[in-house]
Amino acid sequence: MNTFLLLLHLVVLGLPRTWATEACLRACPTACTCSSVERGCSVRCDRAGLQRVPTEFPCKAASIDLDRNGLRILGERAFGTLPSLRRLSLRHNNLSFITPGAFKGLPRLAELRLAHNGELRYLHARTFAALGHLRRLDLASCRLFSVPERLLAELPALREFAAFDNLFRHVPAALRGLENLTHVHLERSRIEAVASNSLQGLRRLRALSLQANRVRAVHAGAFYDCGALEHLLLNDNLLAALPADAFRGLHLLRTLNLGGNALGQVARAWFADLGELELLYLDRNSITFVEEGAFQNLSGLLALHLNGNHLTVLSWAAFQPGFFLGHLFLFRNPWHCDCHLEWLRDWIEGSGRLTDVPCSSPGSVAGLDLSQVVFERSSSGLCVDPEELNLTVSSPGLSPEPVATTMSRFSSLLSKLLAPRVPVEEEANSTLVLSNTSLSDNIPSCGMWVLGHKGTILFISCFLLIYGVGLQRD
């Protein structure tokens, strides 16, 4: 009896699923594939060569995939009435226009993907009207120049907004005031600045990506309303400087990426409120100086990236007091491995977590890794800097001036005295005769130019020069 009841129970429970599967398959559009899922029916029409939206879908459709077709226009109520639809994907089509009200009849839609429709470029402010349950919107790679301010106002449940690879110059004003928004992706969208009101009212925002834009300026207080922010990506932009309070109020921030910019120094004020920071990227900048105490509040930092900069020295004072660090990346910097880096060499030995800190100077250690440098000690126990190799060796005291130098100076003076007195015509027509006179074995010979009536003067001058050299040798 119990076995019979169990079988009856299974049959009764299985009937609805069977009926649902049959209904899903029966109403499946031509060129599409339909299958029953836990919450309804899944419809796959991707790569089906469709030029228009099918006129009928299964009533219980929970997911529709129309990716990679040739759809160009979405008319009003393009999908009819589908009360169970939660996910709709229209990526990689040729959409150029979406009629306001195209998504009416989809009251439970939670995810809408419109990415990679490069001809879309413009959206009407009422495009997403009636999508009160939409949680995720993907507008990536649509070549949009702007987003109407009211476009997202009717999406109170929106959590995630992806609009990377577009043509914005500013952070879309349509984002302001979306209190439930948690993730925003705006990378590679030509944004030039983050203004003080760009992110106004985004009190639940947890992740913001602005990487690979053209951001030159972050205004003071730009993230003031983003107290819940945990991940901020500003890498690969054009930032050369930041205001002191650029990240004021970001007490929960765990990841900050400032790599690939043009920053020349690191200021202590930037990280004053970032006590929870775990990952800090400052790589691929032009940093030459890190301010004392710059990282002193970052007691929970797991990794610091300073590679690919112009640093020659890094002071221990930048990390004090009570600093603990998991990983430190310092390669591709022109390090000057003197006693100012002895603390770092000791930290490398103690932690075993850091290698590849090549020394560029002093000359005696150039080419070595900092971990291989041995610092000598003076008699008083102080660290002694490695030597800077000097190819020019100088002897102590004053050395007598070489004879050749005396002769060259005297000859130069004599040439200056005689040259102006010789007319151009006479100089050109004179016959020059070289005469060598040997005065002594240890006295150098003097060559005398016979220049007419001035030969005597030149001979006397040369004789005085030789005589003076002989005295100097004696």
UniProtKB/TrEMBL annotation:
| GO CC terms in record | dendrite; plasma membrane; postsynapse
- Annotated signal sequence is 1-20
Q: Which residues cross the membrane?
A: 448-469
Q: Name one GO biological process term.
A: visual perception
Keywords carried by this UniProt record: Leucine-rich repeat, Membrane, Repeat, Signal, Transmembrane, Transmembrane helix
Residue ranges of every copy of the LRRCT domain listed in the record: 333-381
* UniProt-listed Pfam families: LRR_8 (PF13855)
Do the record's keywords include Zinc?
no
Q: What is this protein called?
A: Nyctalopin
